[in-house]
């Protein structure tokens, strides 16, 4: 019997690779593609971060400004007030209050006090929201090759979300999932193997 006949009889293709081996080669090829894509994304991201850091204006907004703005918006909404109403009470336009709430404009201390008074809260509650944001900022880990397309896709999706509340919700879900995995790795890996 020829080698080809033996392979045919054994159910092996003529290239000598079993379907399982072919599948493993395809998976390894896909992983290599993902690693390459992740490396390209990391290089592109590093370039943008370096350019951004080189042109950082010390007067530009920070994560704390955005956190204070979100807190103002949440408190305003909880009290059932409109942007227009609160803006009028603190002496700014509705557009300016909107910029405060989304964190695109920094808030002067005197304006922060006026906002706190209008919301009938202590100013330190707003400042605390900003300091919690600073404490919550975690260093971004170096890209690992096993992240592949998943991390690239997650970052692209996250960066496309413009609403701070939706971004916060996504971060909260990710933290919850990470915490669950760290406390119950067997449960998570079992769920993954069932899929």
From TrEMBL:
PROSITE patterns: HTH_CROC1
InterPro entries documented for this protein: Cro/C1-type_HTH (IPR001387), Lambda_DNA-bd_dom_sf (IPR010982)
Matches recorded under Gene3D superfamilies: lambda repressor-like DNA-binding domains (1.10.260.40)
SMART domains (alphabetical): HTH_XRE
Record-annotated HTH cro/C1-type domain positions: 72-126
GO MF annotation terms: DNA binding
Superkingdom of the organism of origin: Bacteria
Protein name per the record: Helix-turn-helix transcriptional regulator
């Amino acid at each position: 019997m020829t080698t080809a006949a033996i392979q045919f009889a054994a159910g092996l293709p003529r290239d000598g690779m079993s379907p399982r081996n072919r599948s493993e080669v395809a998976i390894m090829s896909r992983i290599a593609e993902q690693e390459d894509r992740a490396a390209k994304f990391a290089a592109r991201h590093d370039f943008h971060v370096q350019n951004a850091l080189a042109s950082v204006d010390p007067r530009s907004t920070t994560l704390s400004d955005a956190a204070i703005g979100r807190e103002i918006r949440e408190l305003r909404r909880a009290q059932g007030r409109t942007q227009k109403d609160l803006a009028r009470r603190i002496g700014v336009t509705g557009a300016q209050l909107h910029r405060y709430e989304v964190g695109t404009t920094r808030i002067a201390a005197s304006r922060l006090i006026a906002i706190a008074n209008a919301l009938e809260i202590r100013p330190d509650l707003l400042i605390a929201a900003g300091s919690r944001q600073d404490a919550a900022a975690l260093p971004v880990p170096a890209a690992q090759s096993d992240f592949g397309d998943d991390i690239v896709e997650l970052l692209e999706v996250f960066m496309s979300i413009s609403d701070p509340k939706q971004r916060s919700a996504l971060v909260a879900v990710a933290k919850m999932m990470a915490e669950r995995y760290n406390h119950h790795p067997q449960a998570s890996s079992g769920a993954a193997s069932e899929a």
